[in-house]
Structure formats: structure tokens, C-alpha cells
From TrEMBL:
One of its GO terms (cellular component) is plasma membrane. Belongs to the tetraspanin (TM4SF) family. Its main location: membrane. The chain crosses the membrane at residues 20-43, 49-68, 186-211. This is Tetraspanin. It is found in: Cell membrane; Membrane. It comes from Astyanax mexicanus (Blind cave fish). It comes from the Eukaryota. SUPFAM superfamilies: Tetraspanin. Keywords: Cell membrane, Disulfide bond, Glycoprotein, Membrane, Transmembrane, Transmembrane helix. Disulfide bonds join C106-C139, C107-C123. Pfam families: Tetraspanin. It is a multi-pass membrane protein. InterPro entries: Tetraspanin/Peripherin, Tetraspanin_animals, Tetraspanin_EC2_sf.
Length: 221
């Protein structure tokens, strides 16, 4: 009994490292429910490998985003235009488009005329909709003094010239506005990703330390 007791004294798993690592990874698990099942498997089998894999995938995604930025721009344009077409068909897509247009002060993928892709807003003479030649309310320039949301503010606005439209609606496209926002906040966005990457590298080191402690204890058994 005394010999076994001496072996455990010689090699012990650090409680601080163990519980700190556990709490550290809980934070990352909360970022997405999709990681929960993988995280449980990784905890039992190869935890440090799991963190390393996530870090590698994020790094790869960042590199691909830079290399294929034109392709990503095209995909964003395709995504917005598809959602414009289905604006009245899906309430979730409608809310998404409204949020994007209000947040980035834009209208359509490249401008208000992109709303011709929607059967309710297009300007064809055969369109019986009251929203014909209009845009959604989220395209409208907000009145700072207005307390009540006017959901009809975009009606018939595209029957006017472009200069006249600028008084009532945003005329810049969301793709260009998103690019502008990304450039203006590039340091912040890059800083966030670098911070996450450094935290994950720190987590990998902690995981490796924990694995080494466990192996040391098992070796004394």
C-alpha cells in the first residue's frame, strides 16, 4: 500500500489545469450546438486533436476567404437576390433581408431595381400588386423624429428618378455596403479572429498538458 501511495505522490494530474481546461472548452461548446456531440467524443478520445482540428479549419477558412473573395462576393450577391425573390414567401428570409437593409442602409443586392426580381415589387404593367414599383419599408430612409413605422413608405418610389429616390430610400446595394463595412471594421474583425485563435492555441497547450499528466499517472499504476 505504501509503495502505491508513493507512486501517486510522484505523478499527479494538476487539478487547476484540469478544471480550467474544462471550463475553457465549455465556452467554445456554447458557440454552437453542433459541436456538442463532437465535443463529447473528443473529450473521451483525443481532446487536443479536436481543438487542433477546429483551429486548422478556421485558419483554412480564413485563407480561402481571402483567396476566393471574388467568389464569396458572387455568392453573397446570389444569396441576396434569391432572398429578394422569396421575400414574401418566407417570413424568416423577409426578416433577414429587412435586418440587412436597415443595418447596412442599403436596398437590394446592387440597388433598388433588384426588387424587380420579386413578383410583388416588379414594375411590369401586368403586376396587379399595390407594391408594384416599390421597395420594402426596410429600404426607406428613417425619419429620426418619427415614432410610428410607416410600412408603406416604399410604395411607388421607383417610379421617380434616382435623385428623387435618394430623398426617400437607400439607393446603395447591400453587397457594396457590406464590403465597405468589412473594410472599415477589418481591424476589429481580424482582432476577434486572432483572439479566438490564440485562445484555441492556449486550449491545445492545456489539453496536451492534461494528457501528459494522465499518462504519467497511468504509468505509475
Amino acid at each position: 500500500m505504501s509503495r502505491k501511495h508513493q507512486h501517486f505522490k510522484g505523478a499527479e494530474v494538476s487539478c487547476c489545469v484540469k478544471y480550467f481546461l474544462f471550463g475553457f472548452n465549455i465556452i467554445f461548446w456554447l458557440l454552437g450546438a453542433a459541436f456538442l456531440g463532437i465535443g463529447l467524443w473528443a473529450w473521451a478520445e483525443k481532446f487536443s486533436v479536436f481543438l487542433g482540428l477546429i483551429f486548422f479549419l478556421e485558419l483554412t477558412a480564413g485563407i480561402l476567404a481571402f483567396v476566393f473573395k471574388d467568389w464569396i462576393k458572387d455568392q453573397l450577391n446570389f444569396f441576396i437576390n434569391n432572398n429578394v425573390k422569396a421575400y414574401r414567401d418566407d417570413i424568416d428570409l423577409q426578416n433577414l433581408i429587412d435586418f440587412a437593409q436597415e443595418y447596412w442602409l442599403c436596398c437590394g443586392a446592387h440597388g433598388p431595381n433588384d426588387w424587380n426580381l420579386n413578383i410583388y415589387f416588379n414594375c411590369t404593367e401586368l403586376n396587379p400588386s399595390r407594391e408594384r414599383c416599390g421597395v420594402p419599408f426596410s429600404c426607406c430612409v428613417k425619419d429620426p423624429a418619427g415614432d410610428v413605422l410607416n410600412t408603406q413608405c416604399g410604395y411607388d418610389v421607383r417610379l421617380q428618378g434616382e435623385l428623387a429616390q435618394q430623398e426617400f430610400i437607400y439607393t446603395k446595394g447591400c453587397v457594396g455596403q457590406f464590403e465597405k463595412w468589412l473594410q472599415e471594421n477589418l481591424i476589429v474583425v481580424a482582432g476577434i479572429f486572432v483572439g479566438i485563435a490564440l485562445l484555441q492555441i492556449f486550449g491545445i497547450c492545456l489539453a496536451q498538458n492534461l494528457v501528459s499528466d494522465i499518462k504519467a499517472v497511468k504509468a505509475n499504476w
